[in-house]
Amino acid sequence: MSASTTIPENVRSLAKDLTTGYPRSPRTKLAGYVLAARCLDKCRAELSGTQGEYHYACPLDRMFLDFAGISPEAFKQAVADGRSDEEMDRWIREHATNGSKGEVVHWNNAMRDKRISELDTKVQIYLEEYVEECLPGRVVYHWFDVYDIEEKRLDAPLISDH
């Protein structure tokens, strides 16, 4: 997409203001994929200039896009065309190049269940520091919990000093 591309008004009306709110949980599915709805929220917000601290096509979004076999540019163009959630659901299903429904279900479960200890060392170091700074005193074991705790969809127990 070029910088001069005009964004349809319905993209702006569908976009969440991520300067004051949050994208959907990484657990929320779109077109059968976890991460997809969150990716869509961030893309719409970026196109509308309301992304705040969020970034479309970040490593988290790319996990979904790479697995689905969809380029970030193609996804962004589909969003910029003003598609609704239902239309994006269909578009993703039509353009995804990965295999069977079983593969998608397996991938979804692997993503939802992924523990921080299963991530690359560099990511573990980052999250260790991030949780300590942004979620002080919280017990966090699963990767998606970091987002859901920070974005106030999930409460995590405090570490007890007892």
TrEMBL record:
InterPro entries: DUF5069. Residues 22-153 form the DUF5069 domain. This is DUF5069 domain-containing protein. It comes from Luteolibacter soli.
